[in-house]
Amino acid sequence: MKKCWDTDPNNRPDAIKVEDSIRFLYNSYFGHSLINKDYEIEKQFKEAETYRRNNLSFFKYSQLDTHPQAIYTSRLLNPFTKDLEKYDKSECLACEIIN
Fold first, then answer.
1. Which of 8, 14, 17, 73 is surrounded by the most beta carbons within 10 Å?
2. From CA 74, how far away is CA 91, in angstroms rounded?
3. What is this structure's pTM?
4. How far apart (Å, rounded) are the C-alpha atoms in residues 27 and 35?
5. Residues 6 or more apart whose Cβ sits within 8 Å of residue 82
6. The organism sits in which domain of life (predicted)?
7. 3-state secondary structure the chain
8. 41 and 28 in contact (C-beta within 8 Å)?
9. Cβ pair 82, 76 in contact under 8 A
């Protein structure tokens, strides 16, 4: 997994290597291990899962902290909705608005 996050794209695995790793994990998980490399991948995933479970409360509470410069405001994503406010208080619920 760490290889995928490498800052140098040349050090990252290609799609074939990622597929092989997933296949090794799958084979190891279902008892179809063909080579010793499968066991190493299974071991790494088990270690990662153990670490995740042991630190679950840390991850849960660390997400409550927000960056002081972060901005959380609602904003309309579609510029065509800017005129909706004038129709928002309409009493006619079966009306069609045509521009």
1. 17
2. 26
3. 0.36
4. 10
5. 76
6. Eukaryota
7. CHHHHCCCHHHCCCHHHHHHHHHHHHHHHCCCCCCHHHHHHHHHHHHHHHHHHHCHHHHHHHCCCCCCCCCCCCCCCCHHHCCHHHHCCCCCCCCCCCC
8. yes
9. yes
Cα distance between residue 26 and residue 41, in whole Å: 10
Residue 41's CB is within 10 A of a number of other CB atoms, namely 20
Work out the average pLDDT over 6-27: 85
Tokens of 97: 């608005």
Q: Backbone phi, then psi, for 97, in 5-degree steps?
A: -95, 120
Domain extents for the chain? 2-63
> How far apart (Å, rounded) are the C-alpha atoms in residues 18 and 37?
14
Q: Is 31 left (phi over 0), alpha (psi -120 to 50) or beta?
A: left
Q: How many CB atoms lie within 10 A of CB 24?
A: 20
Tell which wins on pLDDT, 50 or 42: 50
